[in-house]
Amino acid sequence: MSSPVSWRLELFFKSKKELQERIVPFLKENSIKRVNLTNKTKEDQLLECCRIISSAVPSAEICVHYSLKWNYSQSVEQSFQAFANFCATLAEDKQSSMLLVSGGGKKRKLDSVEALQRAAACESIRAAPPIHVAFNPYFPSKAEAAEERKRLTRKLDTGLVRGIYLQMGTDMEKLKQALHFLKDASRDQHGNPMDLFGSVFLPTKRLLAQMRFRPWNGVFLSEEYLSSVDKAQAITAEILAVYSQHGVVPLVESKICTTQELRQCLDLLEGCHKNS
């Protein structure tokens, strides 16, 4: 099920078997090529899962998430070496990229800023895959928002960042302010604008219940968004319209595994694209 709109799909699966038997056939059947692999546990076999997808779908453009929290190994030095080795291996697949994140919870000495600064001084990392970083425009306090921008600037100053992923949120004014900030800040060493991606959810009753009672860390959703599926869909349409106006590629962070769910997703994406 192809679409004229450029978008990405975050994949949800619990085992390599599920990836091979359910996810890959779904991707092939519906011509889905731009996907993201998340890193939620220490046991995630990211490189192997990437190989499974690229072997079955040779034209796949896979962004592999790499969490420094889940890949921490005894010391800063060992953890950085693990990151460097991962970069070298992933770089062999010319169509793959990486989203580097610190990971939530307890702060460690090796976070995404420190890893990029170390990598900038390491010649072997220069042959790394395209590295993307995360940015959250929606922190409610001015101090947190200022710190987030400061951290992003430090990441960009390394010269290694090729793109930025925006966190999901519902404050339109904060989103627009962030995109204005990124217009000037997010340029590569040659002065070219970087790739921008933005998260969205596919609203369902189950999602809204989860986000109300067990919200994801760092995801700020309004009471209006959480009040009903219809309200959430309307706000999602607003977010997608802003993304379209600013050249931001949507990343759908919802589990989509049926034709009906995919059709609902594409209707939302394409409707906003036409109206923007």
* Mean model confidence by pLDDT: 92
The end-to-end span amounts to 22 Å
Give the biggest sheet: 8 strands, parallel, barrel
* CATH hierarchy class name: Alpha Beta
Helix fraction by DSSP (H/I, runs of at least 4): 40-55%
The structural domain count equals 1
Low-confidence stretches: none
- Report the count of strand segments: 8
Order of helices and strands: EHEHEHEHEHEHEHHHEH
**Quaternary status of these chains?**
single chain
As laid out across the biggest beta sheet, the strand order is: 1-2-3-4-5-6-7-8
CATH architecture: Alpha-Beta Barrel
Q: What radius of gyration results from the CA coordinates?
A: 18 Å
- Number of continuous helical runs: 10
* Shape descriptor: globular
Features:
single chain, alpha/beta, eight-stranded parallel β-barrel, 10 helices, 8 strands
Structure report:
The chain has helices at residues 16-29, 46-56, 76-90, 112-120, 142-156, 172-185, 205-213, 223-227, 229-245, 259-275; strands at residues 8-10, 34-37, 61-67, 97-101, 131-135, 161-166, 195-200, 249-252. By secondary structure, it is an alpha/beta fold. The protein has a single domain (8-275), classed as TIM Barrel (Alpha-Beta Barrel). An 8-stranded parallel beta barrel has the order 1-2-3-4-5-6-7-8, surrounded by 4 helices. The longest helix has 17 residues, at 229-245. The mean pLDDT is 92.
Element layout with pairings:
Elements: E1 8-10, H1 16-29, E2 34-37, H2 46-56, E3 61-67, H3 76-90, E4 97-101, H4 112-120, E5 131-135, H5 142-156, E6 161-166, H6 172-185, E7 195-200, H7 205-213, H8 223-227, H9 229-245, E8 249-252, H10 259-275
Parallel strand pairs: 1-2, 1-8, 2-3, 3-4, 4-5, 5-6, 6-7, 7-8
Helix pairs in contact: 1-2, 4-5, 9-10
